[in-house]
Specification:
By secondary structure, this protein is an alpha/beta fold. It folds into 2 domains: 201 residues, von Willebrand factor, type A domain (Rossmann fold); 109 residues, Jelly Rolls. It is 20% helix and 33% strand. β11 and β12 form a beta hairpin. α2 packs antiparallel against α3 and α2 runs parallel beside α6.
Length: 348
C-alpha cells in the first residue's frame, strides 16, 4: 500500500483554470476552486489529450471493479471522435527478487496518441487487457517521463493514481512538459500531508484542477465533468441518489429556448446493477407540453449514445422551453440501496 491511502488522480485540462484549494463536504467530490470559461469564446477545446493511469498493486483494493477503466471508456465514447488521445499505464515496474527485474520500465504505452474515431475499439481493448493492478508501487517520475516521450505536443493530461509517489525523490517531473493537468484523488482519505500537497502542486503548477473523492464510486462522474470542460460544454448539473430495487427519484431542470438536445449520463459502481431514466416530461405554465410518450403531449426523444456495465449515456432531444422532469429508477440493484449519479449536460 502507498503512503497516502491510495487516491486516484486524474488529470486533464479544460480552458483557463486558476486555483487549487480543496473545498466541499464529506461524502462528495471536493473540487478545487477554478474559473473555467466554458461555453464562451475564451474557451478552446483540447484536441490532444494524454492519459496517465496508475496500475500499481494497491488498485486491486481501491478500485476492484476497475472503474478507472470504465471512466476512460466513458471519456473515449463522449469526446469528439477527432480528438487525439494517448494512454500510458504506470507503477514502479515489476517488484520481486533484487536484480532479476532491474531495467523493467515504470511505465508502458497503452495506446499511442491517435484520433479516437478509428481507434476507439483498440483503445478500449488495451485498457481492458492491460489495467490489472499488477505494476508494483508508484513512480510519478517514470509516469510523466513516459507521457512526455509518447505525446510531447499534448494540450491536456490525465494523471490517474491512487497513491503518493514512493519511488525515490520526486523531481517535479510534471514541469518537463508543462500543460494543464486535472488531478483526482480517491480513497478512504488522502493520508500523508506531503502527498496531498504534491497533488495540489501538480494541478496548480500546470494551471489545472484537483479533485478529492472518498472512494472510486464517483470516478466516472468526475471524468465526465472533465470531458465537458475539455469540449467547452457547460458543466453538467449533477444529482446523486441512493436507490433500492424498483425505487425511483424524480429531478427537474430548466430548459431554455436555445436548448434542444441534452446529454444525460448515469454512472454507478457495481457492474451487476442497472439504472434507467424514466418519465421524461416538460411542464410550462402548469401544463405538460412534451413527454417521452407521444400522447397527449409532443414527443421527447431518448436515444442511447453509449452504454456499459457501469454507465449509460443518453441523448434527450426534441426539447422545448419549460421545466424538464425525469426519474432515475433502480432497474436492477444487487442489494440494499446503491448510489447512482446522474449528470445532465449541454448539447451532445
Amino acid at each position: 500500500m502507498k503512503s497516502f491511502t491510495k487516491g486516484l488522480v486524474i488529470t486533464v485540462l479544460a480552458g483557463l483554470l486558476a486555483g487549487a484549494a480543496f473545498v466541499g463536504t464529506a461524502g462528495a467530490a471536493r473540487e478545487a476552486t477554478a474559473s473555467v470559461a466554458t461555453g464562451s469564446a475564451s474557451c478552446t477545446a483540447a484536441t490532444n489529450i494524454e492519459a496517465i493511469i496508475d496500475d500499481s498493486g494497491s488498485m486491486s483494493i481501491t478500485d476492484p471493479n476497475k472503474l478507472r477503466v470504465q471512466a476512460m471508456d466513458l471519456l473515449i465514447k463522449t469526446l469528439p471522435t477527432s480528438t487525439t488521445l494517448g494512454g500510458v499505464a504506470f507503477g514502479s515496474g515489476i517488484e520481486g527478487i533484487p536484480g532479476v527485474f532491474e531495467g523493467i520500465p515504470a511505465a508502458m504505452t497503452l495506446f499511442p496518441p491517435e484520433p479516437i474515431g478509428p481507434n476507439a475499439a483498440a483503445m478500449e481493448e488495451s485498457l481492458k487487457a492491460n489495467i490489472n493492478a499488477d505494476d508494483g508501487a508508484t513512480d510519478y517520475n517514470g509516469a510523466f517521463a513516459k507521457a512526455d516521450a509518447d505525446d510531447p505536443t499534448a494540450q491536456a493530461r490525465i494523471f490517474l493514481t491512487d497513491g503518493g509517489h514512493d519511488e525515490g525523490t520526486y523531481n517535479e517531473a510534471h514541469l518537463a512538459h508543462n500543460v494543464p493537468t486535472y488531478v483526482i484523488g480517491f480513497g478512504s482519505g488522502l493520508g500523508a500531508t506531503e502527498d496531498k500537497a504534491r497533488l495540489q502542486k501538480i494541478a496548480k503548477d500546470t494551471g489545472g484542477q484537483v479533485y478529492e473523492l472518498e472512494d472510486d464510486s464517483e470516478l466516472q462522474a468526475v471524468v465526465n465533468k472533465i470531458g465537458a470542460a475539455l469540449t467547452c460544454q457547460t458543466p453538467p448539473r449533477q444529482f446523486t441518489d441512493e436507490l433500492s430495487q424498483g425505487q425511483s427519484k424524480t429531478h427537474s431542470i430548466t430548459i431554455g429556448a436555445k436548448t434542444h438536445i441534452l446529454r444525460v449520463t448515469l454512472t454507478w459502481a457495481n457492474p451487476g446493477d442497472n439504472f434507467k431514466l424514466t418519465g421524461l416530461r416538460i411542464k410550462s405554465h402548469g401544463k405538460i407540453v412534451a413527454a417521452s410518450r407521444p400522447k397527449p403531449a409532443s414527443r421527447i426523444k431518448v436515444s442511447v449514445k453509449a452504454k456499459s456495465s457501469t454507465f449509460a449515456v443518453l441523448n434527450v432531444s426534441h426539447l422545448r422551453p419549460g421545466t424538464l422532469l425525469f426519474s432515475v429508477k433502480g432497474a436492477k440493484v444487487s442489494g440494499g440501496t446503491v448510489k447512482v449519479t446522474t449528470q445532465v449536460g449541454g448539447e451532445s
